[in-house]
Amino acid sequence: MRMKRRELFGRVSAWAATGAVATQFQFGCLDAFAQGDTARLLGTWRLVDIRNDKGEQIRGPKPTGLLFYDGAGNMAVQIMPDWDRPKFALGKATPEQAKAAIDAYSAYFGTYSVDEQTSTVTHHRTGNINPGDMGDFVRQVEFQEPNRLILKTRGTNNQIVWERVGK
Length: 167
What we know:
alpha+beta
């Protein structure tokens, strides 16, 4: 019985180590081969500010959010407004409570592509909390400092400011 446990432990340990090395190799290589703006986008970003064309904070003074870009071309974003939203039990919201809970909340995921010639990133949205906002969404990319990212809606002054959390 002891032999079987040791053998099983050895196999599990070897499997875990192999998976960790493969994961590190996969993402490490993709990071190393990424160029320019694409490489600078990779990682996790925390929302700092979001403003409309008039410079107004449209989700409250301190909205929260995270943005992720990985080396395999996947991305995801969630932005929550800075105001009280009604609390309710799962599946027991009134229509008004449900509407208030998702008003100004953004959440979507998909893949992304970067056009370094035009300094844009396109989010190819495949899932979205708002089913009417699927498909491609293009943002102008501007880097300020090594850890600050500004995404702007083309043709407007709307902007979202992000700060790097990790790579």
